[in-house]
Each structure stands twice: as C-alpha cells, then as structure tokens.
Amino acid sequence: MEQPYSVLADALSKYQSSPDWVQALWLVAVPVTVVGSVACVARAVTTIAMAMLVRRRVLHNAALPSGTYEVKVAQNEAAPQLTSRRTLSLPETHS
Predict the structure, then answer these.
(1) Are 72 and 57 in contact (CB under 8 A)?
(2) How far apart are CA 79 and CA 94, in angstroms?
(3) Residue 34: inside a domain, yes or no?
C-alpha cells in the first residue's frame, strides 16, 4: 500500500537534499520572518490601544484652532496637545 502524500515530508526531503548555503539561509530566514511578523502585530496592537486610550480621554472632541485636541489626564491636569502627525505615547498618570 502506498503512503499518502505529505507536504511536510516533501519539504523536509527537499531541505535535506539542498546545498548547505540554502539550508543556512532557511535557518536564518524563517526565524527572522517570525520575529518580524510578531513585531508588526505588536506594534499594530499598541497603536490601536493607544488610539483607544487617547480617544477615551478626549473631551467631547473639542477641536482647537490648530486642529489639535485637548486631552485631560488624572487630577484635571492638561496634557500636551496631540496632533495627527505625532507618535502617540502613554500619558503620565499620578498616583
């Protein structure tokens, strides 16, 4: 009886029969791709979380003359104005 086709077995066979430099390239390329993908997802999640935090703290979306928004933080202290081109960062909280 014939074995069913396995993509994983075929890929492993091709990896083992490839030259050493190709094997080394695969050993570097796969982890770099995984780390890069995780970094992109983490940055996207951080950006979304920061946008939600800033949006939650904006008071009635009152636009200022320069097109920025005033943000209030804990203890009614005014935070720096945020513009659409500024990289978002967590506001300092006083405990």
Answers:
(1) yes
(2) 12
(3) yes
Residue at 89 is within a domain: no
Q: What is the separation of C-alpha 65 from the centre of its chain, rounded to a whole number of angstroms?
A: 32
Tell me the two tokens of residue 90.
């967590």
Q: Which DSSP state fits 82?
A: B
Q: What is the pTM of this model?
A: 0.50
Element at 36 (helix H, strand E): helix 20-57
Q: Dihedrals φ, ψ of 63, to 5°? A: -75, 135
Find the domain containing 72 and state its range.
7-76
**Residue 93 included in any domain:** no
pLDDT, tens digit (0-9, with 9 covering 90-100), for 55-68: 766 644 544 455 55
State the Cα torsion 37-40-43-47 to the nearest 10°.
-130
